[in-house]
Amino acid sequence: xxxxxxxxxxxxxxxxxxxxxxxxxxxxxxxxxxxxxxxxxxxxxxxxxxxxxxxxxxxxxxxxxxxxxxxxxxxxxxxxxxxxxxxxxxxxxxxxxxxxxxxxxxxxxxxxxxxxxxxxxxxxxxxxxxxxxxxxxxxxxxxxxxxxxxxxxxxxxxxxxxxxxxxxxxxxxxxxxxxxxxxxxxxxxxxxxxxxxxxxxxxxx
Length: 205
Description:
The chain has helices at residues 16-27, 48-51, 64-75, 132-146, 151-173, 188-202, and strands spanning 4-10, 31-35, 79-86, 91-100, 104-109, 124-129, 179-182. The chain is an alpha/beta fold. The protein has one domain (4-202): P-loop containing nucleotide triphosphate hydrolases (Rossmann fold), CATH 3.40.50. The longest helix has 23 residues, at 151-173. It is globular and about 50 Å long.
């Protein structure tokens, strides 16, 4: 089986996960969703203070080899063990999630289009474009509530790495997209057009 691989990229808090989930739910049993966040490098050799200093908004923070290999396996109809990453400790856990290939594979991440090795694998590239002030508010809310971060640490990280890396890597990668979607999953016109295109494509798979 050959699968349709959809890449969804955009800045932190842009709404790419919302869009990815809506697409997956619309395709239902024939779709699989993977987050690029699962593929942060494993840094067990560092202590927590060192891990906190890593620039997690740079392409080098990701284990690209594993991500690329697993996307290839899934695209060709195989089964993979997706890593689990703990954002509170900045470590990969001992657990993995078994994922079987589907007709539609969706992978989403902030730096997906900034890694050249991944681009040839993507059949559809979608960039979610959202204003910076909206994105930072969403980032603060998520990191404090879901990832156990302090407000001060989130603000510091945003100013020192998130914003500069967005300008250096994520924003420029927008030009590589096939579709640019303002406001992510809440853009009904774009969402319906994307779903229509996907459904027409998977009829031939």
